[in-house]
Amino acid sequence: MKAAVLHTFDESLTSDEFVRYENVPDPKISRPTDVIVRIGGAGVCRTDLHIVEGIWRSKVDVKLPYIMGHENAGWIEAVGPAVEGFRVGEPVICHPLVTSGHCLACRRGDDMHATDSSFPGINANGGYAEYLLTGTRALIKLPKTLAPKDVAPYTDAGLTAYRAAKKASRHLLPGQFAVVLGAGGLGHIGIQVLAALCAAEIIVVDRSEQSLELAKTCGAHHLVKADGHEVEAVLAKTNGRGAEAVIDFVGEGDAVARGLAMTGNGGFYYVVGYGGKIDIPTIDMITTEKTIVGNLVGTYAELVELMALADRGLVNLHTREYSLRDANDALHDLHAGRIHGRAVLIP
């Protein structure tokens, strides 16, 4: 099969070629619960750029060359002998983690903390290819309203944004405020989820006018340009008290300090983006009673919930399509900030 393969790390992200489009062996079924999916769309994520940089080397044991791509959807191509309930040719979306279902975390539905798992595109070959090896527990059938190429980024970008926004929505009331930092690939989904799940007013902060315009179409009530005065602007819109929830999809540079400054007393700061550091005096944590919440990608059940919202048209992805052979163009455009929404590779 054809695949876009990572052969070397590039810490500076200056190479013209991050991945190489080439022939590789087809994946094979080796376990009874294995499933091979013919890829209809593979999302391009900023995590993929971090993988190219080598940031994930300290977190996972990856041996190059290997295939990135952890946001995948397509059609069932082949199934192992123990697979039930799925037929060849059915359209599916893949939860990013392949778990055995045997450990306690699996049985609790806490997929991301499973002790027996693989993560295609992170620590195993992923979906920057014509075919993907996954497992039956990762599959969700797609309704007729949703095509694989249009929903693939939901499996990480959408699911991560959904998890954070769902947590926030549980305590947000009418008359309160939620701030979304970053209206890009994850942020524009998080805005829609907040609008679907709660009645709080949504304030979106971003440096890009184009991203702010996208945020407006996604349900944002207030738009704030990140120009160095965004904290003051948010405080003005919240009558000086700050927001009850801040969801930080940036997580690096000065976004962390500014996000915490926008969070009101007793409020919640949800960390989604990464790369920066949280530095706050303990006395400030005590006197303000702020809560800092980390967020991984969501669970299988939460992906089912997100597909229900998408099926009803309450959440829509803004995507830009690339051919699989043009994976380097997609990665470079993402790195340069030329993608507003999500990029999707199509074999």
Automatic annotation (TrEMBL):
Pfam families: ADH_N, ADH_zinc_N. Keywords: Metal-binding, Oxidoreductase, Zinc. Its cofactor is Zn(2+). Gene3D superfamilies: Medium-chain alcohol dehydrogenases, catalytic domain, NAD(P)-binding Rossmann-like Domain. InterPro entries: ADH-like_C (IPR013149), ADH-like_N (IPR013154), ADH_Zn_CS (IPR002328), ER (IPR020843), GroES-like_sf (IPR011032), NAD(P)-bd_dom_sf (IPR036291). PROSITE patterns: ADH_ZINC. Residues 14-345 form the Enoyl reductase (ER) domain. It is an enzyme of class 1 (oxidoreductase). Its EC number is 1.1.1.1. One of its GO terms (molecular function) is zinc ion binding. SMART domains: PKS_ER (SM00829). Signal peptide: none annotated. SUPFAM superfamilies: GroES-like, NAD(P)-binding Rossmann-fold domains. PANTHER family: ALCOHOL DEHYDROGENASE 1-RELATED, VACUOLAR PROTEIN SORTING-ASSOCIATED PROTEIN 11. Belongs to the zinc-containing alcohol dehydrogenase family. This is alcohol dehydrogenase. It comes from Lichenifustis flavocetrariae.
